[in-house]
Amino acid sequence: xxxxxxxxxxxxxxxxxxxxxxxxxxxxxxxxxxxxxxxxxxxxxxxxxxxxxxxxxxxxxxxxxxxxxxxxxxxxxxxxxxxxxxxxxxxxxxxxxxxxxxxxxxxxxxxxxxxxxxxxxxxxxxxxxxxxxxxxxxxxxxxxxxxxxxxxxxxxxxxxxxxxxxxxxxxxxxxxxxxxxxxxxxxxxxxxxxxxxxxxxxxxxxxxxxxxxxxxxxxxxxxxxxxxxxxxxxxxxxxxxxxxxxxxxxxxxxxxxxxxxxxxxxxxxxxxxxxxxxxxxxxxxxxxxxxxxxxxxxxxxxxxxxxxxxxxxxxxxxxxxxxxxxxxxxxxxxxxxxxxxxxxxxxxxxxxxxxxxxxxxxxxxxxxxxxxxxxxxxxxxxxxxxxxxxxxxxxxxxxxxxxxxxxxxxxxxxxxxxxxxxxxxxxxxxxxxxxxxxxxxxxxxxxxxxxxxxxxxxxxxxxxxxxxxxxxxxxxxxxxxxxxxxxxxxxxxxxxxxxxxxxxxxxxxxxxxxx
Length: 515
Known about the structure:
The protein has 21 helices and 11 strands. The N and C termini lie far apart (69 Å). By secondary structure, it is α+β, with helices and mostly antiparallel strands. Strands 1, 2, 3, 4 and 6 form a 5-stranded antiparallel sheet that branches. Strands 5-10-9-7 form a 4-stranded mixed sheet, covered by helices on one side. Strands 8-11 form a two-stranded antiparallel ribbon. Helix 1 (2-41) packs antiparallel against helix 2 and helix 12 (325-340) packs across helix 19 (438-453).
């Protein structure tokens, strides 16, 4: 009965949210108490030697608890777990390795669960809109799953269907998340990250609006208009609402599928270079950045207009960050100066204008490049960059980076999406064997962004700057090649441990590209 339904549904929602809140709070308290007890037991002299034993053990136990919690609660918890797994430049390995199963293992839902949604959104049954629908999903994510279908006119499409309970649980789950952040701040005052709550709420609200996702896709396509190296699937607006998104179906392979890429006649290096160029262009030139370019959202295929050319197809446009022109210009200048070591004063000047304290500038540069500068390594660790494996994992060494929590409070909120994007790119490059100089590719794109800013300069000044910039890029490439050769020679003669992976280390956070 409609009247009973009005009473029953809110009651179920309240009970469900209360159950999820209680379950989450209990898990969080167990984890917090474990860490608090550990630090109370340890004195400063014991911390370093104890790190590799008790700390790793607690990291693993806590990660297991979070994984079980995400699987039980589902929905936004899966999304948050995936985000944690992607932050392997910040979180301990025990967390990222344990939670990375959430990137792929999302349970499929029966198509029957979505039939009512079509009636609610279109006042029609699915078969009235589509000629055919494959009831078995081709992909399932934290917030939605995707089905292959055909429109009445014969167009092959992909339908993205939001899970029915996501919107109902949203406010309760976000409240729980904000309470957890408050608990962390209360028990660990040095780690005040409460600001993440409101920022995450804004991001997720936009990500749950599929009409906004469609608009993001069209805007990104317009920004890249004229460059057919990149493609953005067409949106079918008549079959799209804020909970159902219908787009062109794409035939291709994931960017990490090296075998399929080679069967197309291309090399993985071409694929990751094109993707990195696209992300750099979005960040530094257009100021409109895709926040989740993980392998499942990046397809590679032969260009339909020219089969000999590789084309990158970007999917899932729910998470974007639009940057102000002021931020874009300053970030271009910081990145270029950091990547090329051209002008430390420029870095300090613009970092201060973005609200970052001078003593946190080195740490900020390390975060955006995902590798520390040579001077920083020598100053804080007393070793050369190729000896970093000797100090990684040492608590006292890690502490020399400064207060990470302090920096996250200072830095602009735009950096959340920028760092997420950068870490995913680094991860894909690593998985493909680090075939490209990631920082050099992005530096070129930051140069384009700077060129836009300086377009009113004289022709001679502009030409002089460009020649100087390209010489620096060439130097970066040569430095990388010689560094790679040097590492191999050191490894060959036993100066680097046998278990040390040259390719893996070159692709690692600490020295993705030594410079």
